[in-house]
């Protein structure tokens, strides 16, 4: 029976790691004042009829802290890349000089910083909800095993282990959010 419990706990842990990875991805997309190529991860370009990630059709660099530079591998992709950036609604206006597209990140105002902190906290709360749902699912599976003959002590031990894993991942979510808040509020 302990093998079944270990499987339930391992599965919950694995899913919680995925929730943390998703949170890290989402937080990476939130602009914290510094130019970061991750801001463009959600931008897809029409590349000969196929929707393709921007990073697959161009080289994205950060020449300085406030600028992103996009060098397409094919010159005829400048127009579609520019349209995709505008359509992606990331709040940046592309500057096309015929060879390269530059995105200038304006300095963040206090009001915008507070909006970004709210967004970070919202993402963190969504991650916590995911982790708690995974905990609930794991505990339900343990209770099913208890009905199928698992001893009450073993079920309680397994539930305690699931709660320990949950607490660990909730703390990781809190730490990620705190770090991102600090990054955003640093001028």
DSSP strand content: 5-15%
Number of strands: 6
Number of domains: 2
Q: Tell me the major beta sheet.
A: 4 strands, antiparallel
Please give the CATH class of the largest domain. Mainly Alpha
What is the distance, rounded to the nearest whole angstrom, between the alpha carbons of the first and last residues? 55 Å
CATH architecture of the largest domain: Orthogonal Bundle
CATH topology of the largest domain: Topoisomerase I, Chain A, domain 4
Total helices: the number is 4
Helix- and strand-based class? alpha+beta
CATH superfamily of the largest domain: Ribosome-recycling factor
Radius of gyration over alpha carbons? Answer: 22 Å
Order of helices and strands: HEEEEHEEHH
Tell me, briefly, the overall form: elongated
Instruction: Report strand order across the widest sheet.
Output: 3-4-6-5
Assembly level: single chain
Which consecutive residue ranges, at least 5 long each, have pLDDT under 50? none
Helix content: 55-70%
Mean pLDDT: 88
